[in-house]
Please model this.
Amino acid sequence: MAELLSDGEIDTALAELPGWRRAGDSLVRTVESPSFPEAVELVRKVAEAAEAANHHPDIDIRWRKVTYTLSTHSAGGLTQRDLDLAAQIDSLAG
Model:
């Protein structure tokens, strides 16, 4: 099982993940795309990355805005897996 991150580790990581914020035991970011099809295409790319990592975010699609919520439910909070997937989402979102 993945180890939970300390508050300090999470704060340090968030400084390097612009657009992400902490919401309790989760990391959250909303990405706005130029169009609905582009938003859905980004979700598809994130789904592929998440499947490859075997770590799946909660995804909320609202027209061109997509909110990604990351948490390692099996560990009961935030782990390195969440930070890694957040960085992948940032890379895919450009």
